[in-house]
């Protein structure tokens, strides 16, 4: 129930439906930030598990699949996922105005590239 409340709170905190900036994410309570990051990572898993009937794989699909493989091979927990994003945000304050879903992607890209 607590996670559901956190998800609803995240939706209510957005400036526009489905959009949350890094600055807005930082203002959320810890459980809300956690829920947001898990939601983004879960969406990646869904994206790469849905069959692509076009016969072509876009660069975005390829790179997202690589992030999913990286996180799964390292057995990244929810807490670790949030820590990856938190660390990225602390190191990149100039990017806080950007869309948070993209910042989560860049945080994982950087973490996977470093390891």
Characterise this structure.
By secondary structure, the chain is an all-alpha fold. It has one domain. Helices cover 71% and strands 0% of the residues. The protein is built from six helices and no strands. Helix 3 crosses helix 4. The N and C termini lie far apart (35 Å).
Relative helix content: over 70%
Largest sheet: none
The helix tally amounts to 6
Tally of separate domains: 1
Query: What pattern of helices and strands is seen along the backbone?
Result: HHHHHH
Oligomeric nature of the chains? single chain
Unreliable runs: 1-11
Average the pLDDT over all residues and give the rounded result: 85
C-alpha-based Rg, rounded? 14 Å
Count of strand segments: 0
- Helix and strand composition category: mainly alpha
Question: Alpha-carbon distance between the termini?
Answer: 35 Å
Silhouette: globular
Strand portion:
under 5%
In short:
The chain is mainly alpha-helical. 71% of the residues lie in helices and 0% in strands.
């Amino acid at each position: 129930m607590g996670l559901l409340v956190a998800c609803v709170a995240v939706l209510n905190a957005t400036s526009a439906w489905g959009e949350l900036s890094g600055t807005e994410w930082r203002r959320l309570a810890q459980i809300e930030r956690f829920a947001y990051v898990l939601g983004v990572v879960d969406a990646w898993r869904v994206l790469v598990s849905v069959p692509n009937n076009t016969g072509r794989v876009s660069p975005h699909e390829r790179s997202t699949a690589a992030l999913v493989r990286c996180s799964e091979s390292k057995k990244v927990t929810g807490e670790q996922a949030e820590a990856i994003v938190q660390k990225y945000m602390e190191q990149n304050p100039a990017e806080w105005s950007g869309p948070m879903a993209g910042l989560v992607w860049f945080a994982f890209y950087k973490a996977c590239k470093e390891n």
